[in-house]
Fold each of these.
Amino acid sequence: MNGSLIPHTKYVDIKLRRGPAGLGFNILGGVDQPCRMDDNGIFVSKIKEDGAAALDGRLKEEDKILAINGLSLENRTHREVVEMFRTAGENVELRVLKKSPCLTNGPADSPPERQSSMSSLGMLVLFAGAVSVFIIAALYKRRR
């Protein structure tokens, strides 16, 4: 999935000038290292204090980076994307997918809520176990 099920999304183009410490943020993700179960894209994992991204202020942790200097990051490995950032030059333009603030609980500046680590499969197994216990209990009562 590419996040298309999220109804309120916002694309932002952000131009950053590489500073002494680079662009000032870390990334996670890629087709070889997905950080989200439903999306193998590239996500901002940390904004470094006083870095180019922090000084600009628009890039936030958990934003999805869609393109670097017009080149799509879709279906790329983590290493490929790191290399793209390394060779992107002094002025770097990012296309970023931001979620609408109305999808969060609390002020827009608050950290995003973490999703539960329990997967859909885990929930299904838990539900099947509960149904099994109910059926066994019903059969046991019937025999008495």
Amino acid sequence: MSTLPPCPKCNSEYTYEDGAQLICPECAHEWTTGGETEVAADDTAKKDSVGNVLQDGDTITVIKDLKVKGTSLVVKVGTKVKNIRLCDGDHDIDCKIDGIGPMKLKSEFVRKV
């Protein structure tokens, strides 16, 4: 008799182990036992391009030329941005850049100063 838990998505009892992961053959959902809370804790910490943890109010530097969508403006490499705010979503930094105005940035294109 299998002691593996049922699938959390479809409740199928036919789950099987593949290394450290559990897999459901009916809905193809993959998960680990007990590790989901650790993954959620890591997702809440926003990190810059080199792995430094970002917080509200930090000062960052842009590490790549970024075109501003819908305009001919470009945020140049080395642009300093002060007093950032972290938010949820794909673009997880909300800030105001001098000469451009309010915008959202991805944390993968910035470095903490």
Amino acid sequence: MKIPVTGFVMDSGDGNSDHSHKLYITSWNGNPVHVHAFSGVTSINDGHSHEYESWTASAPTGVPHVHEYHTFTSYDQGHTHLIQGTTGPAIDLPSGGHYHLFEGYTTINGCHPHSHAYRGRTGNEVSSG
């Protein structure tokens, strides 16, 4: 099965020879794509918490979908944690658009190895095209 996809490729500018370009998809199977902002503060563990913020991966607009996400937490107590996962399904907003719920646990890091719980809801959809 072939799915028509449109987008563009840009040099990532990071000098990493393994991944020197980034692909930005603007439509998937004829549907424009969108992203969501997400942010929050982790649970307190080992005497501290971490902040995080980023954007979800793109997903098609107007069809049932979820989004992948990943980011690193703020640098606190000498370390960061990776946050990654998949959002829940879209939840419609009365004023139009939608959001997604997300939750999980960070990677285990730190001088005293530990993880943090996190949860939240994304912002409303934003066109990524």
Amino acid sequence: MTTHIDRRLEELGITLPEAAAPVAAYVPVVEAGGLLHISGQLPFKDGQLVTGRLGEDVALEGGTEAARLCGLMLLAQIKKHVGDLSRVTRIVKLGVFVNSAATFTDQPKVANGASELMADVFGEAGKHARSAVGVPVLPLGAAVEVDAIVQIG
């Protein structure tokens, strides 16, 4: 059965990637009290990890795209866990970690790549609280990592 979210993804030209397996000792999603706590997701493009540091070897546009790719992986993890993205009633919060040079201060603009994706897919339910934090390094040299708290019904 095709849901309204499936139709919306199709309208947006979005094909979800395969949900990534954990790279260490954790699970991708924990469900508790109607909330999904989704572990940090990394950006993959054409099967390759997007690496680098914003303000050094990655431009703002590349960072924003990396955050969007992380958002797509979040959607893939949700779908794998609950089976149907139409069960999402609210994207509660995103935590966006940006591999940043010491002088880079546009983390909120980078984070918009994931935030705008959620609003595009879920409409009002995709609008969320957010943190956007610059860090000196991320796992595997990733440019961006995004985690999430999502309410399901």
